[in-house]
Amino acid sequence: KFKERTKGIFTMYSNCGEGEAAFRSDVISTLTSEAKLSVHNYGECGRNKDGPASTYSRDDSTIKLELMAEYQFTLSIDNTVEEWNQSEKLWHALLMGNIPIYWGAPVKHPLPCTDCIIDLHDFMDGGKTKEQAVEGLVDFLLKLFDDDARIQKYLKWREQYNLQEFLQGGKFHNFQLLHNQSFESMHCDFLAGVSP
Question: Model pTM?
Answer without folding.
Answer: 0.80
